[in-house]
Amino acid sequence: MGARATDRIQYLYNSSGRWIAFRRGKYVFDTEGKWVGWLPWGDGQIVDVEGRYLGTIYPEDRLYRALAHRKRGYPGYPG
């Protein structure tokens, strides 16, 4: 039986190719396993645990902080 999409881990890298975080489902963790953010809209935009823009996941596994990201309303809280 295959893993569910929420069980899969996606490793995220900066522009230099250094591993900086990982994603499991809609949650994002740093390299130490600390929860640092989540994807409230399901489109690659990550907000931190306070609801502020953290970065965007670009194909396939790059995490960048876009200077001109689209501002959205408060994403709520995942828990």
CATH architecture: Beta Barrel
Whole-number average pLDDT?
Answer: 88
Number of strands: 7
Largest sheet report: 7 strands, antiparallel
Question: Can you characterise this structure?
Answer:
The protein is mainly β. The chain has one domain (9-64): Intramolecular trans-sialidase, domain 3 (Beta Barrel), CATH 2.40.220. The protein contains no helices and seven strands. The protein has strands spanning 9-13, 19-24, 27-30, 35-38, 45-48, 53-58, 62-64. Strands 1-2-3-4-5-6-7 form a seven-stranded antiparallel sheet, with no helix packed on it.
What tags apply to this protein structure?
single chain; 79 residues; Intramolecular trans-sialidase, domain 3; 7 strands
At a glance:
Helix content is 0%, strand content 41%. The protein has no helices and seven strands.
SSE inventory with pairings:
Elements: E1 9-13, E2 19-24, E3 27-30, E4 35-38, E5 45-48, E6 53-58, E7 62-64
